[in-house]
UniProtKB/TrEMBL annotation:
<dbReference type="InterPro" id="IPR027483">
    <property type="entry name" value="PInositol-4-P-4/5-kinase_C_sf"/>
</dbReference>
<dbReference type="GO" id="GO:0005829">
    <property type="term" value="C:cytosol"/>
</dbReference>
<dbReference type="GO" id="GO:0016324">
    <property type="term" value="C:apical plasma membrane"/>
</dbReference>
<dbReference type="InterPro" id="IPR002498">
    <property type="entry name" value="PInositol-4-P-4/5-kinase_core"/>
</dbReference>
<feature type="domain" description="PIPK">
    <location>
        <begin position="388"/>
        <end position="775"/>
    </location>
</feature>
<dbReference type="Pfam" id="PF01504">
    <property type="entry name" value="PIP5K"/>
</dbReference>
<dbReference type="GO" id="GO:0005524">
    <property type="term" value="F:ATP binding"/>
</dbReference>
<dbReference type="Pfam" id="PF02493">
    <property type="entry name" value="MORN"/>
</dbReference>
<dbReference type="GO" id="GO:0009860">
    <property type="term" value="P:pollen tube growth"/>
</dbReference>
<dbReference type="InterPro" id="IPR003409">
    <property type="entry name" value="MORN"/>
</dbReference>
<dbReference type="GO" id="GO:0046854">
    <property type="term" value="P:phosphatidylinositol phosphate biosynthetic process"/>
</dbReference>
<dbReference type="InterPro" id="IPR023610">
    <property type="entry name" value="PInositol-4/5-P-5/4-kinase"/>
</dbReference>
<keyword id="KW-0677">Repeat</keyword>
<keyword id="KW-0547">Nucleotide-binding</keyword>
<feature type="compositionally biased region" description="Acidic residues">
    <location>
        <begin position="39"/>
        <end position="53"/>
    </location>
</feature>
<protein>
    <recommendedName>
        <fullName>Phosphatidylinositol 4-phosphate 5-kinase</fullName>
        <ecNumber>2.7.1.68</ecNumber>
    </recommendedName>
</protein>
<dbReference type="InterPro" id="IPR017163">
    <property type="entry name" value="PIno-4-P-5_kinase_pln"/>
</dbReference>
Length: 779
């Protein structure tokens, strides 16, 4: 079938729908029958109608009722359409699992009920095979959850009643209690307040049902931590600082009347609370999205070779529709069948409308199949003895080992204003022979400076960085690796051997910007746990003594791409077009190459809850950067493609083997095992966060011919299952005089809106507009 014929065919479908006389026939040809919920009462009627109609037609593009024992022993009864369960149906697996409800093209979609052989049951909404929406899950031991679900996980508001009598009513995130919630134990005692990753954490109140006493204050990991008040029912109370460490406990008792000193130890509260455990609940045995359908052939099918569409998906009904309608002659080029002029005008108009709305792509060039990029070598050159920066690396490691090792543990994250003073720095001399506080070493003498040490120590605690692991990564036996070429700014980058941390040399101006905005940065990352801005762990300076007196300032950051997933594609996105393309030829591009805005050929579709959180966080982060007069930052994006053939070709998510076709067991095909295992394993939930190891769908785009500077291409309908990692980097460039001059100079030569150096307010708006086009909600 030619491309023009394909367009005419799509337009013919729309035209036929407009004609009441041909509406029923068009539905049977193109599969436009609306899916209705079938009840048991009218199942018999449907079956009789199917039997009656089967004697009059042999088409396979219609919705009908089917009941059959499948080759592997599975059983299905219900509505069927073109090789897939479609409508309402019941499916029984040989292992005892059962689904009754709505289907759409072979996927559980809509309202339904899923049962497990253990007696567990989920009843509610499904989406693309996942428990997604509002639903109720009842476990085999009696645990019950009623509330919101996202991709098989409790996410949103929900109430969980545990088999032992405990009840939690509140917010959930990724299957764990999060934000505000109330937990009531079976003895009547309850906690109401903040939660984090399934544990009591933040500000909240615990009330004991036994004696009416209560604790109001801050919590961490299920126990009081920080400022809090313990009150008795007689009105007396104890106010102080709470901690598991007795040496850090201090407070004052205030009696209700003229009572004497109370013989009471605050540690009794900790002993008592240890008896109040939060139930972990049951684990879902097998996720509905992991259940596969048996391959079988419908009794009403007339087997024909299937055609692959332009975007790689198997065509549904188009070939058969073409044969039935017989609109065109043979392949030898004979003319089209008779179509009256009115119909032809309607077809032409419909084709133009479909093209304008982007609903058809058949007249566009066929996309070349995508392949995995060449795997890049491990980044960086190991700094060994004889390297020009070997002594600098030794100095850096000695300084960090000294600075982190001597620092006391952070108790209170509420820092005084003086802690952010740029003058708050500590100089330490490191002679080769060593001193009372520094070890001997083989390098030349140098001085070491720590900027705002208390602030960065608190930041590392906020980011849950263990001091011992931090020192081991940077100062262990493994050497650092220097990236092959300095960045555009002239800075050098170094990676730790475990890839967890990146060290960047800093210009004096960048150091001043970071110190100026440090207080605002600290408050921002503390207020927004899911912030996408880069994480800073330390700011230091090495001053070489002797005749050179060279100062090297550097900042330690988190490496965004330190992940269990290999990164196949990397993009640095700003939302500008001038110079925003890679200068490497295609043959030199590999998985380590940083591509830019005009190289981007995807739209990223996030699940609804994640997309809404993404929108909120990008807005908050951009507002923060705009207030600090920062510009020229970018969103660094890494993509891991989950499905590829042995030959390295990417497998679109639509390229699955349809039911009714013979299935090649050796051929690669789309599977949800990876993401289901990730989501079903509580120990790995923590690895999924906004911007980190996020499952998503990437839709391929193509730029229109002659529109090479088009920032966002046209969607093709070709989707790929991916895992995404992203964050906002390069946040230390303020709109100083050099950037203002750059803007003025380039504005004379180029479109002012296309250049990167613009006012922070305009930059923030343009950046967000672009990012919100590249990232969309997955429907």
């Amino acid at each position: 079938m030619s491309k023009e014929q394909s367009c005419v065919l799509k337009a013919w479908e729309v035209t036929m729908r407009k004609t009441q006389q041909a509406k029923k026939r068009a539905n049977s040809i193109f599969g436009t029958v609306p899916v209705a919920l079938q009840t048991d009462d009218d199942a018999t009627t449907t079956e009789e109608n199917d039997e009656e109609s089967s004697t009059n037609t042999s088409s396979v593009g219609e919705l009908y009722h089917e009941e059959r024992v499948l080759p592997n022993g599975d059983y299905y009864t219900g509505q069927w359409y073109d090789s897939f369960p479609h409508g309402h149906g019941k499916y029984l697996w040989t292992d005892g699992c059962m689904y009754i409800g709505e289907w759409y093209n072979g996927k559980t979609m809509g309202k339904g009920k899923f049962g497990w052989p253990s007696g567990a049951m989920y009843e509610g909404e499904f989406k693309s095979g996942y428990m997604d929406g509002i639903g109720t899950y009842t476990g085999p031991s009696g645990d019950t959850y009623k509330g919101q679900w996202v991709m098989n996980l409790k996410h949103g508001h929900g109430i969980k009643s545990f088999a032992n009598g405990d009840v939690y009513d509140g917010e959930w995130r990724r299957g764990l209690q999060e934000a505000q919630g109330k937990y009531r134990w079976r003895d009547g005692s309850y906690y109401i307040g903040e939660w984090k990753n399934g544990t009591i954490c933040g500000k909240g109140t615990f009330v004991w049902s036994t004696d009416g006493s209560r604790y109001d204050g801050f919590w961490d990991d299920g126990f009081p931590c920080g400022n809090g008040t313990f009150k008795w029912d007689d009105g007396s109370f104890y106010v102080g600082h709470w901690s598991k460490d007795p040496e850090e406990m201090n407070g004052t008792y205030y009696p209700s009347g003229n009572e004497g000193t109370l013989e009471w130890d605050p540690k009794d509260v900790f002993d008592n609370l240890s008896e109040y455990k939060v139930c972990s609940g049951e684990r879902v045995p097998v996720l509905p999205s992991q259940k596969k359908l048996s391959v079988w052939n419908s009794s009403k099918r007339v087997e024909k070779p299937r055609r692959i569409s332009v975007d790689g998906r198997v065509s549904v009904g188009l070939d058969r529709a073409f044969e039935k309608m017989n609109m065109w002659g043979s392949e030898s080029g004979e003319g089209a069948a008779d179509i009256d002029s009115t119909t032809r005008r309607d077809l032409d108009a419909e084709i133009m409308r479909l093209e304008a709305e982007g609903l058809i792509q058949s007249l566009r060039p066929t996309p070349v199949p995508m392949r995995l990029p060449k795997a890049g070598k491990k980044q960086g050159e190991t700094i060994s003895k004889g390297h020009r920066n070997y002594e600098l690396m030794l100095n850096l490691q000695l300084g960090i080992r000294h600075a982190v090792g001597k620092q006391a543990q952070v108790v209170n994250l509420d820092l005084k204003h003086s802690a952010f003073d740029p003058k708050e720095k500590v100089w330490t001399r490191f002679p080769p022979e060593g001193t009372k506080h520094t070890p001997p070493h083989q390098s030349s003498e140098f001085k070491w400076k720590d900027y705002c040490p208390l602030v960065f120590r608190s930041l590392r605690k906020l980011f849950k960085v263990d001091p011992a692991d931090y020192m081991l990564s940077i100062c262990g036996n493994d050497a650092l690796r220097e990236l092959s070429s300095p960045g555009k700014s002239g800075s050098f980058f170094y990676l730790t051997n475990d890839d967890r941390y990146m060290i960047k040399t800093m210009k004096k101006s960048e150091t001043k910007v970071l110190l100026r905005m440090l207080a605002a940065y600290y408050n921002h990352v503390r207020a927004f746990e899911n912030t996408l801005v880069i994480r800073f762990y330390g700011l230091h300076c090495v001053k070489l003594t002797g005749t050179i007196q060279k100062k090297v300032r550097f900042v330690i950051m988190g490496n965004l791409f330190c992940s269990e997933y290999s990164i196949h594609r990397r993009f640095d996105l700003k939302g500008s077009s001038l110079g925003r393309t890679t200068d490497k030829p295609e043959s030199e591009i590999n998985s380590n190459t940083i591509l830019k805005d005009l190289d981007l050929n995807f739209i990223f579709r996030l699940q609804k809850a994640w997309f809404q959180e993404f929108i909120r966080q990008v807005d908050k982060d951009c507002e923060f950067l705009e207030q600090e007069r920062i510009m020229d930052y970018s969103l660094l994006v890494g993509i891991h493609f989950r499905e590829a053939s042995v030959a390295g070709e990417l497998i679109p998510s639509g390229a699955r083997t349809p039911l009714g076709e013979s299935e090649d067991e050796t051929a690669p095909r789309l599977s949800r095992v990876d993401v289901d295992q990730l989501l079903s394993d509580p120990t790995r939930w923590a690895s999924i966060r906004l911007g980190g190891n996020m499952p998503a769908r990437a839709e391929r785009t193509m730029r229109r011919s002659g529109c090479e500077l088009q920032l966002v291409g046209e969607p093709t309908g070709e989707y790929y299952e991916v895992v995404m990692i992203f964050g906002i980097i390069d946040i230390l460039q303020d709109y100083d005089i050099s950037k203002k001059l750059e803007h003025a100079y380039k504005s004379i030569q180029y479109d002012p809106t296309s250049i990167s150096a613009v006012d922070p307010r305009l930059y923030s708006r343009r950046f967000r507009d672009f990012i919100f086009k590249v990232f969309t909600e997955d429907d």
